[in-house]
Amino acid sequence: MAVSTRRLQKELVEIQKQGTPVGITLLSADDFQTWLFTVQVLGDTIYSGELFALKFRFDGQYPIQPPAVQFVVDEKYQAPVHPHVYSNGHICASILGNEWSPVLSVIAVCVTIQSMLASCKKKERPPDNERYVKHAPENPKKTQFVYHDDTV
Amino acid sequence: MQQDIEHISGIFGVEPDIASLLLRYMNWNKERLIEKYMDNAHAVSTAAGIVPPEKSPEPSCSQIGPRRSSRLGISKPSKSKASERSPPAGEPFVCPICFDDTQQETLALACGHLFCRACWGAYVSSKVRTEAESWITCMAEGCALVAPDSFVRTALGDDAQTWARFQELVVRHFVSCMPNLKYCPYPSCSYTVSCPAAASKSALATIVPTVRCGASGAHVFCFGCAIETDHRPVICAVAKMWLQKCRDDSETANWIKSNTKECSKCQSTIEKNGGCNHMTCKKCKYEFCWVCMGPWSEHGTAWYSCNRYDEKASVDARDAQSKSRASLERYLHYYNRWANHEQSARLSAELYAKTEQKMEEMQLASALSWIEVQFMRKAVDESVRCRGTLKWTYSMAYYLEKGNEKELFEDNQRDLERAVEELSELIESPIDPEVIMSLRQKVTDKTVYVQKRNEIMLEDTARGFLEGRWTWNVDVEGFEKD
Fold first, then answer.
1. Which residue in chain B has the smallest CA separation from A100?
2. Does A7 sit within 8 Å of B99, measured CB to CB?
3. Three-state SS letters, B157-198
4. DSSP per residue over B241-307, as a string?
């Protein structure tokens, strides 16, 4: 069995056994290619009351290489308005790129993104949102993000 | 590279592997490393990812991974490097990455983050192969420890190809850090060229470091910049400026010149695509006459004919206009000549083929042997080379300040150009069996002459740089006016 499948299987069992952290629920994990989660930012934040969906896509390289993670943008869900989130759902976060570590997990990514939203003080799009969204590749992993700001 | 590693290893009393990491961290700057290391060896080692920071939090495995109770303490880095540890008895080791408990072989860096050998192998191989990274940090989240060569080798096991790639990456890093070394830019050429004379930036203001790599005589490039041909006699900064200008301007400039005028108030370029002479600038709303370029207010009711050529305002407007046109004109003068030689160089392959054919014909028509007709080939070689020189002299002349020096420069240029044209004509002339011998003599003589003119051109320009004879009409890097 491929390492990625075994690893995801294990992560899934773990999720079913221990449940997910507060604010995060598993929406679907029917195969080992795409998983969906919903994320809610708890407490008194600018996103209170909003519900977002995160889509994970895995290839055979997982967990050596990071999964492709983005917010779902459809009739039901919108991407949060955040300086690191583009309106097409792509996320500029270093742990999904060069700071990815194979010991990170799907849940760890969810938690990181949840806290990224929680610590945000001002709702705004990235400054180059329009330009990026116009030319962005379908898969956010194909984008070479420059991580210029780690304060938010 | 090996020498530096051994040197550092000897001075600091550390293993070559560690010395290599230290040097790589410092971008192979040995002096700086020695200075810093003597100052605070521990800080440097920590920053270079050789020893874990003190009081590091307990190695944190991922949240869903099994927490390991055994403390894999901070032992001496040089000893624990790449040492393979077996998990404590009684508790089967489960790798937190692949969750495989059948893997019994584990590896860890000095930080003690233990993972199975297969995962390390996949990780290192992915770093090396897909990311071309030779600075491989520990797989644990936020851990900055770096894998030394021996560890990489162990992790890769018998994957010799990736190991070779890793070593190549380290060498590439070394070469890129050394100002006197450069890789040959020709495709799939792996040679390195050393050019100590061009190692400093200031040297590039006086010399054009054209180098040829050892792999092939055709691999000629400039050591000082990214231009992959011989751009003598002009120095890198000027050549670069010229190429940039050509990229930005040439095609557009031609069109602008023939189709537009500038608004005499805001200098926006305007294309008149129909209508009467009463123009209103879209940008600044200035109203003017297309014919005389003067303000429309002075035109009164003479709607369709302009008879106000001599009015002061329109004279001024035309002056400004012609000034900007003149600079465009000047640029195009140099550009067209430059482009012409560029074009000829591009056609050189064709010329070589044609010449080859001619040489065969010549053999049939006369009693000359193959060796004896080689003079044609030599002539073509020389003319191609000279056209390369000529091409760049135009970029240089464009930026040269007017004066005696420039005139001398252009004299040399003219002599060379004339000689090259004459030679080209001889090469292309039809073969007449009667006069082959005299043609041969003429071509040979001309080739020698052209070669000499080219040398004069190059040498004189180079000398001019050394003597500081050239002055520019723009700011050139390395020639800051004081």
1. B141
2. yes
3. CCCHHHHHHHHHHHHHHHHHHCCCEEECCCCCCCCEEECHHH
4. HHHHHHHHHHHHHHHHHHHEEE-TTT--EEE--SS-SEEE-TTT--EEETTT-SBGGGGTT--S---
Supply the CATH classification number for the domain B347-482.
1.20.120.1750
- Of B270, B269, B225, B267, the C-alpha closest to B244 is B225
Q: Measured between CB atoms, does B122 come within 8 Å of chain A?
A: yes
Q: What is the mean pLDDT of each run of 10 residues along chain B (482 residues)?
A: 84 86 89 88 87 56 37 37 44 76 80 88 90 88 88 90 91 87 82 82 81 81 80 86 78 67 74 69 77 72 57 72 78 87 82 88 84 88 89 90 90 91 87 83 92 92 88 78 48
Chain B contact set for A63 (CB, 8 A):
97-98
How far does B186 lie from chain A, in Å, by closest CA?
27
**Domain-wise residue ranges, chain A:** 3-142
Show residues of chain B in contact with A96, CB under 8 Å: none
Could you tell me the pTM of the whole model? 0.64
Q: Which residues of chain A have a CB within 8 Å of the CB of B113?
A: 103
Kindly state whether A105 is in contact with chain B, defined as any CB-CB distance less than 8 angstroms.
Answer: yes
Which residue ranges make up each domain of chain B? 1-57+70-177, 179-222, 347-482
Instruction: Give the pair of three-digit tokens for residue B150.
Output: 């021996």
Which CATH fold would you assign to the domain A3-142?
A: Ubiquitin Conjugating Enzyme (3.10.110)
Amino acid at position B32, single letter = R
For A69-101, what is each residue's pLDDT tens digit?
999 999 999 999 998 999 999 998 888 987 888
Question: Residue B371 corresponds to which amino acid?
Answer: I
Place of tokens 């929406």: A27
Q: Closest residue of A to B99, CA-based?
A: A7
How far is it, in rounded angstroms, from Cα A104 to Cα B62?
6
Annotation says A92 is catalytic: yes
B60, B68, B98, best to mutate vs chain A, most A CBs in 10 Å? B98
**A11–B63 C-beta distance less than 8 A:** no
How far A143 CA lies from chain B's nearest CA (Å)? Answer: 14
